[in-house]
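Appendix B. Raw example, untouched.
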Amino acid sequence: MTTPAEGKGAPNLKFSHMGLSVSDIARMEAFYTGVLGFTVTDRGTAGGMQLVFLSRDPFDHHQIVLATGRPANLPANTANPQFGPSINQISFKMGSLADLRDIHDRLLGGGASDLFPANHGIAWSIYAHDPEGNNLEFFVDTDWYITQPFLIPLEFDKSDAEITELTRSLCESSEGYEPYGDWRTRVARRMTPFVDAGGN
């Protein structure tokens, strides 16, 4: 195994997209377009696979690729069945608690299963399985950082104001608490930023 030369910085990259091996590509396309609002940008065949390219951003030709070829008897995660056997989770950032409540209702009506709302202190999340059991996370960042991992149930029977106040109070009394902006500033000093020569 080769390692970077001493003193050489991190490579100039950022995460772009991911592919999912699927069994029923039509059902999966219907879920990702109909429930999650992705647009099909292309489709075709390559390497013996049917492919569907999906995006929610015109600057990204695809953010998810669905590809046939998933093994028929892929075993479940041995530590926790909520999470996938190889892909632990696919996460989608949302804009507000109202958006999170909206996706909760869409998931319930759109073929998702195993819904699990969670409060991580740093974020409010809903975990759910897509129709083929891939674990999805939909999350909204809060204004506070606390040491992770941390998880308690997210109670949607409470109002947005009640959830926010409960989370703020919980974070202020938890290990590692600081405003999320301060944490981001501090951790950014340890990261190598991506530089886009094209300005995108």
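End of appendix B.
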